[in-house]
Amino acid sequence: MRKPWFRKPALWVILFLLIWSLFLLWGEWKKGEEVSNHYLTLARLYPQNEERYLALFLLEEIKKDAPLEVVKTPEEGGGWEVQVTLTNQESREEFSRKMLDLFQLLSSFGFVVKQEKEGGKDFYSIFRGTEPWFFLETLIPRRAQIALVIDDLGYNLEMAERFLDLPVKLNVAIFPHLPLAKKIASLAEEKGKEILIHFPMEAEDDRENSGEAFLLRVGEREEEVREKVEEVLRLIPQAKGINNHKGSRATSDYLLMSHFMESLKGRGVYFLDSLTSSHSLAYRLASQKGIPSFCRDVFLDGELSLSYVITQLQKTVEIAKKNGQAIAIGHPNEVTYEAIYQFVSNFSEPGVEIVFLSEMEERN
Hints:
CATH superfamily of the largest domain: Glycoside hydrolase/deacetylase
Shape: elongated
CATH architecture of the largest domain: Alpha-Beta Barrel
Order of helices and strands: HHHEEHEEEEHEHEHEHEHEEHEHE
Strand content: 15-25%
CATH class of the largest domain: Alpha Beta
Mean pLDDT: 90
CATH topology of the largest domain: TIM Barrel
Largest sheet: 9 strands, parallel
Helix content: 25-40%
């Protein structure tokens, strides 16, 4: 007579192991706050292969959030070495939080984690005893940067408001001496834009200088230059930087630019050379004085046609890809507004970011 199935010890052993495995899986689901991974369960069931299963557990969890490269495995000598590429600072912070949760699970197996930060990189070393078992490096590849600057704000409040409403990191250069300057600067600050002082400077053509009520002129003494710098910074205290309006003659004059840059030293502002003249000394002298300094690459609206401005914006992106960065200057008009609006709405360059000038790497 055959024994009933429930009297067979082997079947009870199999049933027990099945129930125990299900219990462990449920435990991992609860313990890890939705972190559930079969390798973690296998590490508990088969302690003789624990380190291998835990490494596979980490690799599988990491791959859910970011591309990784296994640089070295234990078979090649030593421990695991893994490199993870993240897209931006936000993803870096999210990844760091997830890793802390995973490391908390590993601590129950007797592992200790050491975390270090250096610039845009994070380093995680996982130890059991004194020997490192798993080394993880995260990095954010440097992206090319472009900065969009809109000059000549201060005459038209309605047009200024349209540019300030653009959903992009925009740098706006405001004439300091115009009646609308403070109003526009306050609105720009409220809208989260970066503010520059658009400093009128003497042009080679005297006809361009005749209508300027406020102007930096060749031949002015150092005290006069310093007073003008102090005045514009008082008028627009929100300014992060200064760039020149016109100034083909002024920026080419060594003595005047030396006085001007000396007056900017220690004031916490950067200088953008609009490069209205190929003979400009402004950028070089600003750099020599230790002032954070930049120079323009592209004028967007030398021609007021939509196709032209869009082409110039695309040219800005190509320069940034080649050189690592590019700065484009445009002006407050309907065509430039529409071109930037379209450009921003369709922008899809993962290797390029639009930044404020204060976020841009200095070329010098």
